[in-house]
């Protein structure tokens, strides 16, 4: 009972902090930066990086794009710069997906550790910040809707999987995840996209529907990727900053992994419109 209460309290604080920050563009920028620093600290322990450089790389990349967007995203080179980082981030994430199907652990040689901290983790927080400010205007409903879809997917994947799950999804990586749970999470995310589209006017229902599929698929893959990292070093949680939940990275792994793909989809929408 005490564990459930602790988990509920810290879960409420986390959600309240996120939703509360959405009322101000600068608050969101600062919050995602703080989340990024904490997540990098946890990830450094997982992949055994003892240098300070990941913090420097993240800070430079994050505030470079944040300041550039604030001054004028229409300045020459902004789109090109984001496209380069986007391609590199998706490239790294696709390799991590490939590693899920390998019986071996995720290779962690020196250069790959640099790539992971830069384009798996650091750049994802940049994209979360850019998603909130997509279209040259601050649109908190898009980033909030994305988080809601992640929460719905995780919640119903757990509920459906626990009650009806039989076929394992990636048993060696995450024994509790099932195919039925994944389908349940995906289904309820799609249903939720209708209500998000109804109560917001940023995207159409069809666009939110596609976004819900992207988030469910890549969010689940992101959860599995982090689970494989943790299994390699025999730890249950990435950290202890959120009692009852583990580390912040444990709460953000899905949205972190999905962020580049969400941003890519929004860029495609912007291009075709």
Describe it.
The protein has a two-stranded antiparallel ribbon with strand order 1-2. It is 75% helix and 3% strand. Helix 2 (25-46) runs antiparallel to helix 5 (110-132), helix 6 (140-164) packs across helix 8 and helix 7 crosses helix 8 (205-232). It has one domain. With 273 residues, it is mainly alpha-helical. It is built from 9 helices and 2 strands; from the N terminus they run H-H-H-H-H-H-E-E-H-H-H. The radius of gyration is 18 Å and the shape is globular. Belongs to the CDS family. Its EC number is 2.7.7.41. It is a multi-pass membrane protein.
Taking the alpha carbons of the first and last residues, their distance comes to 52 Å
Structural class: mainly alpha
Helix content: over 70%
Strand order of the largest sheet: 1-2
What is the total domain count? Answer: 1
Count of DSSP-assigned helices: 9
Largest sheet: 2 strands, antiparallel
* Helix-strand topology string: HHHHHHEEHHH
GO biological process, one term: CDP-diacylglycerol biosynthetic process
Keywords: Cell membrane, Lipid biosynthesis, Lipid metabolism, Membrane, Nucleotidyltransferase, Phospholipid biosynthesis, Phospholipid metabolism, Transferase, Transmembrane, Transmembrane helix
Transmembrane segments: 12-40, 52-69, 81-101, 113-132, 138-160, 181-199, 205-225
EC number: 2.7.7.41
List keywords for this structure.
273 residues, 9 helices, 2 strands, globular
Task: Tell me the layout of helices and strands.
Blueprint: H1 2-21, H2 25-46, H3 53-71, H4 78-100, H5 110-132, H6 140-164, E1 168-170, E2 174-178, H7 179-199, H8 205-232, H9 248-272
Antiparallel strand pairs: 1-2
Helix pairs in contact: 2-3, 2-5, 3-5, 4-5, 4-8, 4-9, 5-9, 6-7, 6-8, 7-8, 8-9
Keywords: Cell membrane, Lipid biosynthesis, Lipid metabolism, Membrane, Nucleotidyltransferase, Phospholipid biosynthesis, Phospholipid metabolism, Transferase, Transmembrane, Transmembrane helix
Organism: Formosa sediminum
Family: Belongs to the CDS family.
């Amino acid at each position: 009972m005490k564990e459930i209460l602790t988990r509920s309290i810290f879960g409420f604080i986390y959600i309240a902090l996120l939703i509360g920050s959405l009322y101000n563009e600068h608050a969101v920028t600062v919050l995602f930066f703080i989340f990024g620093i904490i997540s990098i600290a946890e990830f450094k322990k997982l992949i055994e990086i003892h240098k300070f450089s990941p913090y420097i790389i993240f800070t430079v990349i994050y505030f470079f794009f944040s300041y550039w967007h604030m001054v004028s995203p229409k300045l020459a080179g902004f789109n090109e710069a984001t496209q380069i980082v986007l391609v590199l981030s998706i490239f790294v994430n696709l390799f991590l997906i490939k590693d899920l199907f390998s019986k071996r652990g995720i290779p962690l040689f020196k250069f790959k550790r640099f790539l992971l901290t830069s384009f798996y983790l650091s750049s994802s927080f940049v994209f979360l910040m850019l998603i909130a400010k997509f279209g040259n205007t601050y649109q908190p409903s898009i980033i909030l809707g994305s988080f809601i879809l992640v929460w719905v997917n995780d919640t119903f994947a757990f509920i459906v999987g626990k009650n009806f799950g039989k076929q394992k999804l990636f048993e060696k990586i995450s024994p509790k995840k099932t195919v039925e749970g994944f389908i349940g999470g995906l289904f309820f995310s799609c249903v939720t996209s209708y209500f998000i589209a109804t109560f917001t006017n940023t995207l159409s229902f069809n666009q939110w529907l596609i976004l819900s599929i992207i988030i469910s698929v890549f969010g689940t893959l992101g959860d599995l990727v982090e689970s494989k990292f943790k299994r390699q070093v025999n730890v249950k949680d990435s950290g202890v900053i959120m009692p009852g939940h583990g580390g912040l990275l444990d709460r953000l792994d899905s949205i972190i992994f999905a962020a580049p793909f969400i941003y890519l989809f929004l860029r495609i929408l912007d291009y075709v419109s």
